[in-house]
């Protein structure tokens, strides 16, 4: 039987003084209300756009006021559709900076968390949507209603489908902007919101397919097939739309789950033609409609370019631990100013395997207890990771191993610490994000007068060799007393073995130490410690530069052509100028800030002494799996061993385990195969256990 007392209520973490907390809460409330008002106003414009009131009464007045000689027909859309989201993104950066500076990890009160618990509870668990919470279902229903509203208000069926697809594009790029300042404002990360990008992508493709096929049928029925070859000088280009649709079809065909999982490289490489898709899409819809979807694309390009700049630098790899479970722990050097929260991910590129492929892996280290190191775990579950494992495990010694990284990216707060107890359910390599959570709890437990949640870790592995993943629960520098200060119980299930195998058949853990190289640099934030403020500066300066470039061109080049003669400036050339100015402004602003911070990071890196690190005689691992000279009962890390119970030839009875959890506030975190995540979600949403607060951690795209 499991110790159900472990998940009974435990005192919450100590909070700041009441007055200080009240003032902070008031400021946060006012700021968030401002964000909400601006966002709702932006949505209201989208709602009113297809109505007669907007088109017949508002549009003439707005155009007369806003379509100046500096911005032409783009003036209205720049103000109504572009400016609000750029404002939220810029001010959001400042808000997140002060939230981080104040250490506001647990700003939301317990009562507020309980009020939101219903909205976060899973209400729909089914393929292909996955796990959908009540809040997600409500917003999805509202979005569908908005699409239906647009469908009802436009007259031409095929044309309205294109307009509705453009509406999907207005939201399409926000979820994949990894360093976004908008997603954290609503408690999201780019990893957790990837599914929204997938939903919007499929929906927009259905609409664009119907839009394109509808026009082809119409042209065929009216003997106007020549329209398919038209590249108009004064209106939309049909040819550009057809080329964009062709690229979109290629991306769409390779993005379905079956293709994406079995042929990831095909999906990965074909998805990079999104640049051509955007290019021809903008040539097709024109500048006015480009301004309607500009915020998402503009912020995505800023993020993508900053990631590109960060990835050019080789990361300083300190060591690689080869685990018997065919997993590799890579430990990098990092700057002291780089901070991150548990469950963050790091994108990794190994040029010797593939110069183009980037793969995300969970960060298992803790920036508080290991301020100068950052570690990730890579399990061999695909061709890329298998090549990496073979390359590292087959070499007797390696002086240098080239690795580039992007990130880390993750949540802006350690929200799981608000719960009074935690139940973590993992399958296979899904235990990795929980390693970082447990390390954070171990660190928090060392603070005076700080109470942390009790932890019940349920982990399922295929083989006993996978138990070595649990070795990583303790920091490299961790002492026995660290883990003994927390309430930790581990229930490990080995599903494919009936009993513990003989110890002499086990592989030994091996650690490879790499020599420091002057060309490598510690992992650091692309924009330094105050990255949110510098991102705000980039957003504001690049957007202002874009407006200046556009205004100067329109006023002193396009305006004289159109008003000094009978000529009309080419429709597509306007689009080219808009795209060029967007990229140029982002390039100038982001490059300037990044290069300045790179210079600062180089000066900091020179202060780090390069030294030869000898390979230790004894490996620090294999506490749980065993080796030829150790027995489980005589291990030195007794607190971890005593907290662990191994079940051979069995699977966890998740329903019984979760229903046995007592206490009013039990956080249930799950990371593992889809079937496991869905089972836990159904249990937590059954209505039989209102004390269970569900959260899924999934990196399956």
From TrEMBL:
It catalyses: 2 a Fe(II)-siderophore + NAD(+) + H(+) = 2 a Fe(III)-siderophore + NADH. One of its GO terms (cellular component) is membrane. InterPro entries: FAD-bd_8, FAD-bd_FR_type, Fe3_Rdtase_TM_dom, Fe_red_NAD-bd_6, FNR_nucleotide-bd, RBOH/FRE. CDD domains: NOX_Duox_like_FAD_NADP. SUPFAM superfamilies: Ferredoxin reductase-like, C-terminal NADP-linked domain. Its cofactor is FAD. Residues 310-415 form the FAD-binding FR-type domain. The keyword Cell wall biogenesis/degradation does not apply. One of its GO terms (biological process) is monoatomic ion transport. Pfam families: FAD_binding_8, Ferric_reduct, NAD_binding_6. It is an enzyme of class 1 (oxidoreductase). It is a multi-pass membrane protein. The keyword Cytoplasm does not apply. Its EC number is 1.16.1.7. One of its GO terms (molecular function) is metal ion binding. Keywords: Electron transport, Ion transport, Iron, Membrane, Metal-binding, Oxidoreductase, Transmembrane, Transmembrane helix, Transport. Belongs to the ferric reductase (FRE) family. This is ferric-chelate reductase (NADH). It comes from Vitis vinifera.
